[in-house]
Amino acid sequence: MSNAPQKTAANTTEGTLAEIVSHAKEYGFVFPSSEIYDGLAAVYDYGPNGVELKNNLKQLWWKAMTQLNQNVVGIDAAIFMHPLTWKASGHVDGFSDPMIDNLDSKKRYRADVLLEEKAAEYEKNGEIARAETLLAEMGRLLTIEDLAGVKQLIIDEKILCPISKTGNWTDVRQFNLMFSTQVGAVAEDSNKIYLRPETAQGIFVNFLNVQKSARQKVPFGIAQIGKAFRNEIVARQFIFRMREFEQMEMQFFVRPGTEDEWYDKWKATRMRWHQVLGLPADKLRFHDHEKLAFYAKAAVDIEYEFPFGFKEMEGIHSRTNHDLTQHQEYSRKKQQYFDADIDPETGKAYGNYIPFVVETSVGADRLFLATLCQAYTEETITEGEGEKEQTKTRTFLKLHPAVAPIKAAIFPLVKKDGMPEKAEEIFNSLRHDFRVIMEERDAIGKRYTRQDLIGTPFCIVVDGQTLEDETVTVRHRDSREQTRMPISELRAYIGEAVSFSRIFEKL
Which residues bind substrate per the record (predicted)? Predict the structure, then answer.
């Protein structure tokens, strides 16, 4: 039996960043780190609902990579690595951002971000060609490392400090982003090491270990989820840009000459993944890099339209064989792969070579933020009839059931007549399979609202009829419809809706 409450949806709207930040804190998704000590800039903690949502997103990515692809396996590399790793990768000498200070406000900014924001302003005003010209010129100047030219471009574009409202800028200079520390019991004997600024190098230095132990043949991929650390000067927009963050990366090793094909394949695969997860196509776009690393063949970002504009969420890069070649040179250990397959042109085995790499790298925190922004929904509804009719705004998180922090909430209608005991019995029967909670406090309407605000897809109500015929009312978050069903069907019903299979089957 289905029972739909009266509802007229006049419109639905999305939240501003300020609303989403406030919601995230109030409902246990994200807290400012060490807030009782007034916090630490650009560092955040994930609360009870946030950690569940983030873990679900990570698990979904992990399974999509390693479970759906027979030729992708995973590792978990250490955060600390031998210092030569970062010399070989170029991070010691070249991992920096162009910074500029405003002499009046004493505030520091990333020069490229100032120019990108100006281009976004042009784009918003419909001046697409002007935006593209600005980004192309910025890319050219950064490629040739003409920092004086970058400063002049900022001046020519009449970009002002948002605080002082002046254009009194210093010269542009490079600022290294790596955190360093010491290893060793005695300070004098310590060696300088770094907190990794990316997770990719842990994959590269383990290339042959993984290839041999997992019995993989090129092409194959190595996936990893892990923390990385960057001393961001301009760290803002909530969890979008932080000093401690989490990456979900996959390095795909391919035969030289096939990298373009695999680059296009992973580019399309990753865009499709985000759409199936629930991010709409019109809020996603590809953005080709204006400035390429000297070793890169191609690079593109998948951008999502956050409340503060289109910003990078994931990068797909064709990295050639630069990383493995560098590690071979600095470690003096061969990083070659022997390919026994036959080259159709020569009729001989491909033999030894250093594979090329196609990388997919998505920020777990940025994906979390995009998911939260997309899910945040304010809906105008009409309830009741006649004189009792009223219009109000309903706020809820329209999360895909597979990633929702809590899959179902179980409510006894009242705290008597055996209903709490029956609700607990249902809770115990489901908790081994799903993240469920039992709630007895407040009126039933307030309990529904609470679960809507944290994105719970199902609320299960135990009432007097339950004690008579072993049926319950299941209330659906998005439609607010209510369905009566036997308790014995709950596990299969919920399991069908929250299974990752509902996402995987669309990939």
Answer: 110, 198, 245-249, 359-363
